[in-house]
Amino acid sequence: MKERLGWIDFGRALAIFLVVVFHVAYQFTRDENLRIVGFLGVSLFFIISGFMLSTKYPKLRSFDLKWFFKRYVKVASIYYLAIIAIVILFANQSYQQGIYDILLHFLFLNWLDPSTQYTLISPSWFLIPLMALYLAYPYLNKLIRKSEWFVVVAFIITIIYGIQENSPLTSFSLLFFLAQFCFGMASAQGIGKIMIIGPLLMAIYNPLLAIPYIVFWIIYLSKIPPIGSITLISKHTIEIFLFHEAIMNVCIGKWNVYGLEMPYSLLITISCFLVATLIASRLQKLVITIL
């Protein structure tokens, strides 16, 4: 798609706003009830990801290594740079397990060890089910285009998995976000009745978990035109997602860069964020050119 969709940009910007608001508010209140705010933001990300992949790659129905590698580079390029920056700037303020911790994050395997699941960049847990769904996309696309009712099956799977989970609003498993992702794909394909049946099942299970779908409907129907500042945020949601925790921790005095005062630590952190974003962008363009 050459033209940007303003409503998609707005949806992404809203999603990252909700995630940041949750982390800041939770840092000060420790109120578990706020987790629904973060869940709403993350769910919007998965719905929009499914929508955009189904819009851009409607014919991809079998695994394509070149395609997946491009998706991997888009995420890993900024993720690895963010990890390196956090390790250099904040050392043992952000992790305790040394090279073992770093290696597991680089391999997207930190979910295997409870002691490393939320270290370094705690919000990065979101990338694990995202990468898993990237891998699964061609097969999900094939199933949905073969029978639209697979989306209902996806909702049932997510509901059953959610019942078994200890934490109802976060999970490293793609099954927990399968409904959101497939709902986004179905929306791109214009499967109208599924846009009602799936969320209705979720509402019966837990009304709060149906909120992301309702919000997506509203944004989808609004057809908001592109807005400069919103588009800018939308283009860098992953970068904001990975760096906002460090910026927040520096601002509240929880972290510092080698003992420096907050203003200097903040300036260095933001500078690293901007440099990492620039380098990652160049790497992504290089890979696209080569492939």
From TrEMBL:
What species was this sequence derived from? Candidatus Bilamarchaeum dharawalense
Query: Which GO terms of the molecular function aspect are on file?
Result: O-acetyltransferase activity
Q: Which InterPro entries match?
A: Acyl_transf_3_dom (IPR002656)
Would you tell me the Gene Ontology cellular component terms? plasma membrane
Report what the protein is called. Answer: Acyltransferase family protein
Report TM segments.
Answer: 7-28, 34-54, 75-95, 115-135, 147-163, 169-188, 200-220, 264-283
Q: Which UniProt keywords apply?
A: Acyltransferase, Cell membrane, Membrane, Transferase, Transmembrane, Transmembrane helix
Please give a single GO biological process term from the UniProt record. Answer: enterobacterial common antigen biosynthetic process
State its location(s). Answer: Cell membrane
Q: Which residues form the Acyltransferase domain?
A: 6-185
Query: Is Transferase included in the keywords of this UniProt record?
Result: yes
Query: How would you describe this protein's topology in the membrane?
Result: Multi-pass membrane protein
